[in-house]
Amino acid sequence: MNEMLRAAIVALALPAALLAGRSAWAAELSTEQVLAVLGAASPSKPADLAGKDLSDLDLSGLDFRGANLRGASFFGSKLVQANLRGAKLEGANLNGAWLMGTDFTGADLTRASLLSVVILGGSVKKMPIFKDANMRGVKMIADLPGADLSGADFSDAMVGVNIKNQGMGQMRTDLSNANLSKAVLAGADFNRSLMTFCNLGGANLRGANFYRVKLGGADLTGADVTGANFTEADLEGTVFRDVKGFGDAIGLDQATNASSIRR
Fold it and tell me: Which of 9, 52, 127, 141 supports an S-S bond with 147, CB 3.0-4.6 Å?
């Protein structure tokens, strides 16, 4: 599938509520103006694009390291292979953004929105990186099979399906084979997500919601599952070796294939 067709499909998949938040006008800055701001930045004075509407711009390959992007809108923008390591993206709008190969290592994405982001398709086949990123309270629906999210903090995040929104109800996050080792998922909602063969070793899963999540073959070795909800989750071959709080987990008696849990 070519990039233009995929982008059109993503735009159609976005609910009207998301599209309503998009500016009816062009982005505040051009790509050239963004380049000028980044070019004038220094380690002691990072680029400041907080609150700017940068929707639909092609910002592929640009260096946003450490930049202040709080509340900025990247709706539908191309950030392919952009460097956002350590960037401040609290409350940023990344809905429909193109994130192939984008590096968010150590970035602060607190309460950011990453709904219907474009990950697959086009010439770049690399997954985005969210290693050690702050994803607290983030809203995300994305295909991230095999992605590196190790050490990321998803506390209180909404990654699962919002059943109140019929448009989003037809979509779900794919974290199959993803690396979430030592990540924090405390209080996060991953309901109905695909997490088969996911690495959750040593992760903090306290109070996380895994309702109807596909966790077949996932490795939870050493994880803390205290209060985690596994009701109707598929646990075929899921590894619970040396987990903490197993007796305080919820819904294991209502999980699918619970008898095949490996401990």
Answer: 127
